[in-house]
Amino acid sequence: MKIKFALGGLIVLLATGCGAQVKPTSKPNILVILCDDLGYADVGFNGSPDIITPELDKLAKEGTIMTSAYVAHTFCGPSRAALLTGRYPSEIGAPYNLRDDGRATTSGVPVEETYMSNMMHDAGYYTSCIGKWHLGDNTEFQPNNRGFDDFYGFLGGGHKYFPNLFQPYYEKQKKAGAYPINVYFTPLLHNTKEVVETEYITDAFSREAIRVIKESNKKKKPFFMYLAYNAPHVPLEAKAEDMKVFANIKDKDRQTYAAMVYAVDRGVGEIVKSLKETNQYENTLIVFLSDNGGNFDHGANNYPLKGTKGDTFEGGFRVPMFWHWPNKVAAGVRFDHPVSALDLYPTFAHLANTNLPKGKKVSGKNIWADLAANTSPHKDEMIFAYRYREGYTDVAARKEDWKLVRMANEPWQLFNITKDIGEKHDMAGQFPGRVQEMITETQKWTKTHIRPLWFYSQKDAEYWKSGQLPNFDDTFEVEKLRMSPIEWEEQKAK
What we know:
Oligomer: single chain
Radius of gyration: 22 Å
Distance between the termini: 59 Å
Helix content: 25-40%
Strand content: 15-25%
């Protein structure tokens, strides 16, 4: 089969599996829209039963939906670090969230790791970061020093959605010299200056995205925008008019969550309108995804996936994703092959007609030709997830149709994830050789990991100091392969 599509003014024929690498003749705008804790089934294009997202659905329908898209970690900070550096967080010492208790941290993603924003800036792009950062508070770690020309948002892991309501509280605490002040109440920043924001925060971020789109158009430069909404992350707070849209949803948390997702959708609609008004729509690649799986405890729905945010079951790190670029990305296509957020870095380098920064290591790969040909970009390659818990580690590895997983210190499980997306039928006992092979490959991958550069809590630090973590020997115990949790505990006791 051959797929025909336009690429930068050229008509290109790519034979399936040919692996051709055709660079665009002009640099496209690239807009990454990242949601926070969005459930797999919480958008219309992934079959949401109760949340409507007409603007996102239209883009998805006119683009390619990635049904097997993964992020590199199961929760916020490490996932974002991976997206921007193109490396697994355990490879750069960033497997934990930064502390978010209002105390300024001196930690952050190492400046030696070149962000994709640095690369895009050096390639001639006007670069912007809008929304949630969560990658370091100190000056050297902030967006303006990591390749972004323009930043509008907040540095911590979350924020109140009606900032103006809490401005008086912040001013009172600041005047009194109270420390620390909860980061959810602090003013937003435009670059490094505090601003008084009077709009609902999701609407404010959409507004700022439109501002940057117009500014970049005047500059006659392509733009790279990292639009990182904090919705629908807690606190669950929504506008009254958006809540009314979902009056049929009786569960208050679910209703509020739905309204928060809808606010993102409304904003995306306005952003698309702005792209069209400035004649940039046709030359803009839009990539939409979530930073991790939805949180069951706060209104999300990951159906048909098993698990929730933080898990190495699919519900923890398999996310909704689509790619949209008129006449460049195939319309009405479902791309079922596994892809990773780590692939964005090298793929964007290709589209920007630039090279990876000198000495830069990436864990993903350029998937552009495979996207065009609808072939697997990671044939016979593993996609991993790795999450440190309290003295043990959750692990997942996918290779084509097969998914290896170990959760909650229980025995290894194996699923044909293509046929069993809900991880209901453990096949480890039927394919012990395959399990052993995948365990060995995953353990080999951990040799690339380094000690975390920071810990979320003192308890985490103590686990590492005592040797309870990383404890790879226990994590990769093959004897735990086909035993039930009870049998395993009995075996250990002998």
